[in-house]
Amino acid sequence: MPIEQSQGKVVLKHPKGASAEILLYGATVLSWKAASATDVMPKERLFVSGKAALDGSKPVRGGIPVVFPCFGAPSHPDHSKLPQHGFARSETWSFSDVVLDNEAGVSVRLTLLPNDSIQARFGKPFELAYVVTLSEHQLSTDLHVKNPGTPGSATLEFQALFHNYIRATANDVLVTPLQGVTYYDKTEATDELKAQPKTETRSGVDVKTFTDSVYENAGGKYQVAWPGGGVQVKTRNLKDVVIWNPQAEAGSKIGDMEGGGWEKYVCVEPGYVRGFVVLAGGETWVGQQVLTVTDGSLGAIA
Ligand code: TA6
Where do the coiled-coil regions begin and end (predicted)? Predict the structure, then answer.
């Protein structure tokens, strides 16, 4: 299965037409094209703003940015010098190797190690590997975080999240099942740490109005659906999920958001963002998501 590298990108192609494009800057998946079981032609499943910077000058507005070691504004002493959402999405990763390449799918590994720019702002040792796997109807992304220290050395404490911009008719989207899950709204505080916990009462969460909610211990399996389209998100080790859409008033103030961009996506972002993963020396943590194209049925998750 062809894997092409050029101009700072890695392109994966599947014999039945699916494809994925990864920018080495930020290890950002820029494109995922796939057909559902009922589609004929592969369709673009991610949203990237027409005003997104793709030259490495700033994190990409769209696709799947990798958020590490902190989500949102830093709240851990080790992260105090870092920008919002950490450094992983604004560093250039290295193409390491092909993990899998057969008729079922193709999988590549990118890596990120401390460099001067990172070490000036984050003093802990780490090794990151990011494995992106494409099959006919699925795309998976796995973030491997290793604490390279010896057993008993300093712990590595972090948050991690896949900031998925799922291409959708935003005002018709429903995300299930989140009913009964505790969540924190950023709308009520400068960030969700200060917000009071609420319990989701809706059977399906919509983003018809400004939405910026962090769902804690959310179950790890979500259906994002709208008339005619849908994506299922299944996760491992990512206990929380963020649902975000700024809508027009806030969206129009985002400098690299194309006009009306907020109408074309919903961010459904699985992560470990309430609290911190604490990794002992020598240990490795893996957070995984598997995105599957569904036929857009608005039913609850299978
Ligand atoms: O994931 C939701 C969120 O934290 C929102 O609060 C909003 O800030 C969004 O991320 C985009 O953040 P960015 O730093 O990419 O502009």
Answer: none
87: left (phi over 0), alpha (psi -120 to 50) or beta: alpha
**Average pLDDT for runs of 10 along the chain of length 302:** 90 94 98 88 96 98 98 97 98 97 94 98 98 97 98 97 98 98 82 84 98 97 96 98 97 98 98 98 98 69 46
Which mutation among 252, 267, 269, 274 tests ligand 1's pocket best, with the greatest number of atoms within 8 A of CB?
A: 267
Q: Is the CB of 149 under 6 A from ligand 1?
A: no
Spell out a b/e string for 76-92, using b for 16 or more CB atoms within 10 Å of the CB, else e.
eebbeebeebbbbbbbe
Is the minimum distance from the CB of 242 to ligand 1 under 6 angstroms?
yes
Neighbours of 44 (CB within 10 A): 12
Q: What are the chain's domains? A: 3-294 (2.70.98.10)
Q: Give the C-alpha separation, 201 to 188, whole Å.
A: 18
State the pairing for strand pair 105-112/165-167: unpaired
Going by CA atoms, what residue is nearest to atom 2 of ligand 1?
A: 244
The residue to which tokens 């008993």 are assigned? 152
Answer yes or no: is the C-beta of 89 below 6 A from any ligand 1 atom.
no
d(CA 147, CA 187): 35
CA atoms of 57 and 113, how far apart (whole Å): 20
Chain-centroid distance, C-alpha 183: 19
SS3 of the chain: helix, strand, coil, percent, to 5? 10, 45, 45
Distance CA(222)–CA(289), nearest Å, equals 11
Q: What is the pTM of this model?
A: 0.96
